[in-house]
Amino acid sequence: MRPVSVWQWSLWGLLLCLLCSSCLGSPSPSTAPEKRAGSQGLRFRLAGFPRKPFEGRVEIQRAGEWGTICDDDFTLQAAHVLCRELGFTEATGWTHSAKYGPGTGRIWLDNLSCSGTERSVTECASRGWGNSDCTHDEDAGVICKDERLPGFSDSNVIEVEHHLQVEEVRIRPAVGRGRRPLPVTEGLVEVRLPDGWSQVCDKGWSAHNSHVVCGMLGFPSEKRVNVAFYRPIIKLKAKPKPRVGRGPIKRVLLLQKVPKDQPPSRLLAQRQQHSFGLHGVACVGTEAHLSLCSLEFYRANDTTRCPGGGPAVVSCVPSPLYAASSGQKKQQSKPQGEARVRLKGGAHPGEGRVEVLKAGTWGTVCDRKWDLQAASVVCRELGFGSAREALSGARMGQGMGAIHLSEVRCSGQEPSLWKCPHRNITAEDCSHSQDAGVRCNLPYTGVETKIRLSGGRSRHEGRVEVQTGGPGSLRWGLICGDDWGTLEAMVACRQLGLGYANHGLQETWYWDSGNITEVVMSGVHCTGTELSLDQCAHHGTHVACKRTGSHFTAGVICSETASDLLLHSALVQETAYIEDRPLHMLYCAAEENCLASSARSANWPYGHRRLLRFSSQIHNLGRADFRPKAGRHSWVWHECHGHYHSMDIFTHYDILTPNGTKVAEGHKASFCLEDTECQEDVSKRYECANFGEQGITVGCWDLYRHDIDCQWIDITDVKPGNYILQVVINPNFEVAESDFTNNAMKCNCKYDGHRIWVHNCHIGDAFSEEANRRFERYPGQTSNQII
To answer: Residues 6 or more apart from 383 whose CB is under 8 A from it?
Structure first.
């Protein structure tokens, strides 16, 4: 065998090094980030509109065919996996019911179940590829965090063909300069395109188009507008003696004639250069967004735009809630009956759990087939615009009681949700974990610009500062802390757009006020439903504050979530009974002031007191735990009962006459707030033993049995007759809740001196107004139950 030269070995070695990276002395591997290939054989894209680049309907290409994913059992964990497939770091949310429009083709996945840690959607459980019983009205979408995975290969992410989209719409007032009242209800329609704001040519503009635009801007309806007032007119330029050969008669653009008493600056629309971006809009009128209409855009090289036309103009009709702020005259409308739809549990105006009135009782709506059309009908019925979002899965908290409707299918043109086709529901069909909700479009009122927080550790807390004065004399100032409480703080947080109030503070010495030291508002008293502090009662321009100085001014701590306590009224009715209890067994109760005032003059320890006993089961149906306002360091130890009181007054128990006069009362300090029982998927967090933390977890309830001290009303001095039993939770609003209207429970009761009949127990806002009037007018007259 011939020997191989060193030079030949070098050539072979070089070749081997090029073919094998494990060769000794070979260059180190590239440090460039690895590009993920995603799921093998699959391609992903985001589609639909209106949307941003990091959100949309999820579409998957499999075997050369594009398809969608059904929203059944879809979760945020599945959205995380899909966003990573699309090249984003994680998901911030997901959508259902084809929010970005229905897709086409196959529905590739249904009942998709992911843990969130899978590297590919193929590792998630589902019904199998192409096996689905859904329609495209149930297409799922994702909202990804706008942050790309390092080194992600975009070859796996196929974006749909780029189309111009209308991202935002506004009305620009065309009449008058200077300060105009808000909201703006009439003006030129402008749409936001990628290159800025543009106007819409009014050729072919219809009332349906105006309806959609007004809905997007928070108005329930529109009215006809005098278009000629806004459009320039074309006239022939007059010549005294036109002669042949002098050229054609020139056509010039003139403005409409302005009356002498109206300055030319009033007609701004006719003095401006128009920039048209859309030349064709065709809406049906049921769309929740202008992008869902058929749109025709001008091309960049179009030199002639909207010939013979002008900018589209709309005039919207605000609801009475916003009409006063816009300075419009309130129209005298025919008296209407009680509303049959309402929203509960929302942190902001125009959002909440949908509840409907049926047979005099309020109940919820199941989220099956719940979509933007149905949500928009609800929003407009309540005086808002179209729906921004149709919420499912009890996103606004769970209701209690009946579920009245399911599978609501609206076209979007109905005047009321009750006019939409729907299915009456049975107990087996749906649970309150599927309660439907909405977020509505609201008019822009600018109230958030008149309030701000200062000195806090985050933007959700601080000393409250308000803007007062008129044009030319605006100034910022503080609010006197006297009588400032939870209800006032709720309004302040709502005006700030920060949700609910955790605390309303009367002293803010630990928050630096900066250079703002003047107190400009005092005596603020709110009901809790106002949209801004200006709508609350206050002293006006006269400021009267008991404690002076910026340290004693109002402050708030806001939160996007809050608790919501609700008493189980049926249990009160089932467990109520009378007991004659000897005085010698009531020393502890007397110490805690749980007996009527006449007990002080009783012949202790002889005799007895007549007590109306009942159990109370208090549920937390909100979106945050209910915690005592005071910390553990300030809880009061009661030796007699051997426990700490974390709240001075937790409930009020009263016996009232039909006209509301109180004839007997009781009160209950929070013996111990703890999780007695919870729903199946919720764990207990609060327990009183060993000086533990007190509170009620979301999805849990605290049970006070009928046989414990102070769980009664002393009716020893009550005469026979018809009465109302009333129980109020958190009566002094010590702890913030999302809804205080459901904190009271009422029952009819009839007492004959020996026995008591208790019936018709219900939460205070569970009945219609008419049913409540009948209840209070004839207590004790129907459905008597002997106790």
So the answer is: 220, 319, 320, 321, 322
- Do the domains 447-559 and 43-144 match in fold? yes
Three-state DSSP state, 299: coil
> What percentage of the chain's residues is helix, strand, coil (to nearest 5)?
15, 30, 55
642 class by beta-carbon count within 10 Å (0-12 exposed, 13-18 middle, 19+ buried): exposed
Question: 182-215 burial, b if ≥16 CB within 10 A, otherwise e?
Answer: bbbbbbbbbbebeeeebbbbbeebeebbbbbbbb
Region 447-559: CATH code: 3.10.250.10
| pLDDT confidence bin for 257, thresholds 50/70/90 | very low
- Is 667 in contact with 658 (CB distance < 8 Å)? no
Place of tokens 């005071």: 630
**What is residue 139's three-state secondary structure?**
strand
pLDDT surpasses 80 at 617: yes
Pairwise pLDDT comparison (672 vs 7), residue with the higher score: 672
The predicted pLDDT at position 326 comes to 47
Mean per-residue pLDDT for 132-153?
A: 86
Please check the confidence at residue 465 and state whether its pLDDT lies above 90: yes
Query: Which of 285, 276, 330, 324 minimizes the C-alpha distance to 303?
Result: 276
What is the per-residue pLDDT for 709?
Answer: 86
State the DSSP code for 349: T
Read off the pLDDT of residues 452-462 as tens digits, 9 standing for 90 and up: 999 988 899 99
Question: Rounded to an integer, what distance in angstroms lies between the CA atom of residue 419 and that of residue 219?
Answer: 21
Residue 521's nearest CA partner among 493, 491, 541 is 541
Number of residues written out for the chain: 787
229 or 170, higher pLDDT: 170
Say if domain 341-441 classifies as CATH 3.10.250.10. Answer: yes
Q: What is the pLDDT of residues 692-746, one digit of tens each?
A: 888 999 999 999 999 988 899 999 999 999 999 999 999 989 888 988 888 999 9
User: Residue 759 corresponds to which tokens in the numbers above?
Assistant: 């019936």
Indicate the fold that domain 43-144 takes in CATH: Mac-2 Binding Protein (3.10.250)
281 DSSP β-pair partners: 295
CA angle 607, 612, 614 (to 5 degrees): 135
Answer left, alpha or beta for residue 253, where phi above 0 means left and psi between -120 and 50 means alpha. Answer: beta
Contact by Cβ (8 Å): 124, 81: yes
Q: Which residues contact 747 (CB under 8 A, 6 or more apart)?
A: 569, 572, 573, 576, 724, 725, 726, 758, 759, 760, 761, 762
Higher pLDDT, 120 or 40: 120
Give the dihedral sign, CA 504/505/511/513. Answer: positive
Whole-Å CA distances, 687 to 674, 694, 711:
5, 6, 20
Q: Is the pLDDT of residue 183 over 70?
A: yes
Per-residue pLDDT band for 234 (boundaries 50, 70, 90) equals: very low
The one-character DSSP state at 157 is B
User: What residue spans define the domains of the chain?
Assistant: 43-144, 341-441, 447-559, 567-777
- Enumerate the H helices of 497-635 as residue ranges: 569-575, 587-591
**Distance between CA atoms of residues 348 and 560, nearest Å:** 9
Please state whether 397 falls in left (phi above 0), alpha (psi between -120 and 50) or beta: left
Q: Is the pLDDT of residue 547 over 60?
A: yes
Which tokens go with 664? 């007997």
Q: Collapsing DSSP states into helix, strand and coil, what is residue 80? A: helix
Chain centroid to CA 536: 22
* Pairwise CA distance, residues 355 & 398, whole Å: 11
Distance CA 525, CA 528 (A): 9
How far is residue 486's CA from residue 119's CA, in Å, rounded to a whole number?
47
* Residue 411 neighbours by CB distance under 10 Å: 14
